[in-house]
Amino acid sequence: MQTDIALLTKYSQPGPRYTSYPPAPHFADDFGINQWRQEIIESQDTARPLSLYVHIPFCDTLCYYCGCNMVATQKYGKAQDYLSYLKREVDSVAELTDSMRSVVQLHWGGGTPTFLKAEDIRDLASHIRQRFNFAADAEVSVEVDPRGLLLEQVQALRESGFNRASLGVQDFDEKVQKAVNRIQPLSLIEEVYGWFRAEGFSSINLDLMTGLPHQTLDSYRKTLVEIVRLDPDRLAVFGYAHVPWMKKHQKLIVQSDLPNFETRMAMQELILETLEGAGYVHIGMDHFAKPEDELVKAQREKTLWRNFQGYTTHRHADIYAFGASSISQTEDVYAQNEKRPDGYQKMIGEQSLATVKGYRMTTDDKIRRDVITELMCDLSLAKASIESRWNISFDDYFADSLNLLKPLVVDGLLEVDKKEIRVTTLGRLFLRNIAMSFDAYLNAPKNEAPRYSMTA
Ligand code: SF4
């Protein structure tokens, strides 16, 4: 597919990634521990399964591009202290949860979950399994930093029921790796990747990143050749978001070393061309998967969903999230924990939960969330299904949004008729822009509007 650079330029603007709607900057501090505890209790009367998220915020060193909530430390004792509080939070939420509700998904993210030693991986995983009712076929996944990883940690993960792993690769070029303070040669990735395959992990995802310092089209082409040779099941290709006003350490990246806009756009084209050429399906946004992958199946069957972990096959699960900064989600509510690990531990010590912010959805939020999520996951939307679900007339309710979409239709990013909205192949690159037309919060007064990364 030939992408018009002029189009990418035209639609490059700050915008949310829509892992939630409304996006996290709209969560407010009038929602705290009492409200979250009450919500857990009241939302048990539901057939919705559970998806658990565990945040391990520690990393050995700092990658300069990092956008995560993390703490760089060499002191393992910090992680051990943190784990004791994390387990208390798990206990508090489990006590309020109907033990018949089935856990269909568990994900450990960070930071670096593999900062944990093998014995602590086993201990935490078994603690969680004893307190929740796991489905036999639950997806149990972990984010992995290949640097310093030991085979015994991979074995501990597998023995603890993990069956999916996501390895942070970003780029194989040495100069790029040096500039972002993340040195991990191809030989290391190959060895670690081999361990996960040998241990029988059913799905391996590789995370890549574009827009890093010193990346060129040629250097990235070489990285992609190796990636395709490794043959992962899924790929997530994120664009580096340079937001030093939010992430102070990104000032360590020399701005003049970043690839210019044209190079970034050419890299997007190269990625599409290379990965689709290698047989991967572009799910949408920045995700690719093999045709037989469950994400592709779910997209075909319109059961794909989007949450804080990206695309997921579990559309109707409530998310219970544990650890500093983590965000829980029920049908009606988002609830976010204290971000700083020391503050989180203090709150858990005193009150067993650590919610500091949240959001209770209005009916309008839920309607818009449905529309945005369907467009980003299914790449099409039947107006009648939204109308019957929410008892509205789609064209009347979304008259303003449909007006905002008109130039995107002219540019070939989507098709709108009386019955449907369909994202075109070209439009997959502009899903955030399409979603923004349905976002009621983007019209906030300028001085109150949150600052987002660029859509392209
Ligand atoms: S390992 Fe991941 S979370 Fe830790 S600093 Fe690097 S990018 Fe951030």
Characteristics:
single chain, 456 residues, alpha/beta, pyruvate-formate lyase- activating enzyme, Arc Repressor Mutant, subunit A, 2 domains, three-stranded antiparallel beta sheet, binds iron/sulfur cluster
Structure, described:
The strands form five sheets. The protein has a nine-stranded mixed beta sheet with strand order 9-10-8-7-6-5-4-1-13, sandwiched between helices. A three-stranded antiparallel beta sheet has the order 14-15-16, covered by helices on one side. The mean pLDDT is 92. The protein contains 16 helices and 19 strands. With 456 residues, it is an alpha/beta fold. Helix 4 links the parallel strand 4 and strand 5. Helix content is 38%, strand content 21%. Helix 3 runs parallel beside helix 4. It starts with a helix and ends in a 20-residue tail after the last helix. The structure holds iron/sulfur cluster. The site of iron/sulfur cluster has 11 residues, from loops.
CATH homolog superfamily of the largest domain: tm_1862 like domain
Helix content: 25-40%
Straight-line distance between termini: 17 Å
Low-confidence stretches: none
Bound molecules: iron/sulfur cluster
Q: Count up the domains.
A: 2
Oligomer: single chain
CATH topology of the largest domain: pyruvate-formate lyase- activating enzyme
Order of adjacent strands in the largest pleated sheet: 9-10-8-7-6-5-4-1-13
